Amino acid sequence: MPTTPRVWISAQAHERLNQELGTLQFLFSAGVADDADENATAVRHAWATRIQQLHDLLIHAIVGEDPPNDGIAEPGMVVTVRYDATGDTDTFLLGVHSAEYADMAVYSIQSPLGAAIAGARAGQRRTYQLPNGPALAVTLLKAVPYGLHTADQNRPGAR
């Protein structure tokens, strides 16, 4: 039997997704859209699909529990990578792309870049394939738990 992977989301995202789920369930059960109208039927179908997605996500979520501060890139970590070809750096959260609204980019562990750096430690180089063809090499510079990153950003003088 296949198992659904656990996903990391922040407490804020968990709260927001629960609110969205409640709203959609209310609208769906209240029959706000008229079933006689083709557009309304499509809207109800979209609501049902989103309700199922949210339910599946929330039931498998690890909420706000930071992973260990071991420097390994995994969900719940804010990672900084260097694109080796250009030297440019990027910092982002490894999380659930559609769940997080953050002050930074969010990459899913299933995305090409997320999958490539999963399990990497600082200094490790990984290569991933872009959807449009070329392969890119990146080096993991740093990985810290989201909670520690957020605390550091909120310290006076941190910005």
Automatic annotation (TrEMBL):
InterPro entries: GreA/GreB_C_sf (IPR036953), Tscrpt_elong_fac_GreA/B_C (IPR001437). Keywords: Elongation factor, Protein biosynthesis. GO terms for molecular function: translation elongation factor activity. It comes from the Bacteria. The keyword Protein biosynthesis applies. Residues 71-142 form the Transcription elongation factor GreA/GreB C-terminal domain. It holds the Pfam family GreA_GreB. This is GreA/GreB family elongation factor.
